[in-house]
Amino acid sequence: MRDPRIDTYIAGKADFARPILEWLRERVHTACPEAEEAIKWSMPFFDYNGKPLANMAAFKAHAAFGFWDREALPTGKQGAAMGQYGRIESLDDLPDAATFEVQVRDAAARIDAGVKPARAAKAPKPEAEVPAELAEALAGDAKAKATFEGFPPGQRREYCEWIAEAKRPETRLKRAADAVEWLREGKRRNWRYES
């Protein structure tokens, strides 16, 4: 299914980009007639069976095309720009139509098979360094200390960062005192905003 917003998107791009975007669009629909078009993040997207298949974009001096499952469909040019084909400045920077269409069909087949794109796992943030003012205040209040130590790392980090970001020593001390009071009551740092 074609989206008229993509016609508008292509028409508004530089002369060099229009034939590239039109070629990419035609190849996607030839290889995967069920692909549906949409605009996401201000660029043309192709969805297949309700899942993202690929996207394309045009910039001042180049265009880009990328499969959603970019790790499974390497082209050797990824990393040079957004997408798998690096900086696309002309149709010569793309594979021939048959090769490209095979890649589109492979991407659709991965969606049919239920394969989800592999994404690198985010490394957990390190444990927050407890500011001296908070450590000292917690040492004098066993209940607040127990609550603090019982919180998950992210909630402890919120208290630590809030106190550590204060510029003046008086402000850090005041925040540490408030933190101990709230912790004694079992409250998280942003308890006022919880519903």
Describe the structure.
The chain is α+β, with helices and mostly antiparallel strands and 195 residues long. The chain has two domains: 4-112, Aspartate Aminotransferase, domain 1 (Alpha-Beta Complex), CATH 3.90.1150; 132-193, no CATH class. Helices cover 43% and strands 12% of the residues. It has helices at residues 4-11, 17-31, 97-112, 132-139, 142-150, 153-164, 169-184; strands at residues 36-40, 43-48, 51-58, 63-67. The protein has a four-stranded antiparallel β-sheet with strand order 1-2-3-4. A hairpin with a 2-residue loop joins strand 1 (36-40) and strand 2 (43-48). Helix 5 (142-150) packs across helix 7. The longest helix is centred in the middle third of the chain and has 16 residues, at 97-112. The two termini are 42 Å apart. The relative contact order is 0.10. The mean pLDDT is 91.
